[in-house]
Amino acid sequence: WTSTRSWRRSGRAPTGRCTRPGRRRRAGSWRSRRRASRRTTRACPPRRSGRSRCCGCCRRTRTSCACWFEYMDTDLKKFIRGHRQNHEKIPAHTVKILMYQLCKGVAFCHGRGVLHRDLKPHNLLMDRKTMALKIADLGLSRAFTVPLKKYTHEILTLWYRAPEVLLGATHYSTPVDMWSVGCIFAELITTTALFPGDSEVQQLLHIFKLLGTPNEDVWPGVGK
Question: What Rg, from alpha-carbon coordinates, does the chain have?
Fold first, then answer.
């Protein structure tokens, strides 16, 4: 499985629509190779799905493979930071275009049974000229089924982590990605992070300060 960040930072000019492969994840057993193969298959969406399109995949050795993805010249984090440093707000029309693509890409992932689990501006690649946005870096993604499996709660960048995950939940689903989408939406509007916590406790305090402390009436089962 390839991380798209490494080739985007390689400094080499793109040739055509695709670039050279990035780093690859080693798979030591046949089970892990099968998981890598399934994840690679899920990473080849249609052109307009909002996901980074896989242009090719080849087997490097018995335990590794390499993938090529379409080239995107920047990411959403740098785009927001540029506006913040210039003391400018991102135009509402641009926010709508970016959020539409993000929601469409997340819907595509969830429609195919994939949780991204690490949505943040740094993992959203974009083209400044066309304002095309693509979801990348699915290194923490997992396939979800019914009934829900038990997952680790140590996922996601802290600022975009859902409160149920911060509270230690191990059974979660698509709402954790939608929480991240909402945080990204607010950051596009204000050009600053919505919940910039330094620890899990402080992150929860930021959330409760803005949204109120949850109870059994607004969040059934929160006491457990």
Answer: 18
